Amino acid sequence: MRLSFRVFGSVQGVGYRWFVKETAGRHAVTGWVRNASDGAVEGEAQGGVPALDGFLKDLKSGHPFARVDKAETQEMLDQDGAEKDFYIKPTV
To answer: Which of 38, 45, 76, 77 is deepest in the core (most CB within 10 A)?
Structure first.
């Protein structure tokens, strides 16, 4: 399963993207994350349903210096040749 996510709140300037990358590794999730110009953090994640559920739960509550006000997810079609790891992309 592949999904897109956007996390809103105090999530930029606190190491949140690195936290997302480490969390993805703990849950064996592949994909990417980046800062968005509107102050959110966004990305795509791919893995099994239990792995993605744990990943998303941790994104909402796990970072000690971030404040997550809202998180949105949307299921996507799996992509052939998807990432083999989890990457931090440049800010858009």
So the answer is: 45
Q: Which amino acid is at 44?
A: E
Alpha-carbon span 69 to 8, nearest angstrom = 6
Question: From the candidates 2, 26, 34, 35, which is the catalytic residue?
Answer: 35
**Catalytic residue status for 6:** no
Catalytic site includes residue 35: yes
Res. 81 pLDDT band, cuts 50 70 90: low
* Global pTM value: 0.92
The rounded distance, in Å, linking the Cα atoms of 50 and 87 is 21
DSSP letter for 80, please: T
One of 2, 6, 17, 34 is an active-site residue; which one?
A: 17
CATH code of 6's domain: 3.30.70.100
- The residue segments making up the domain with residue 11 are 2-88
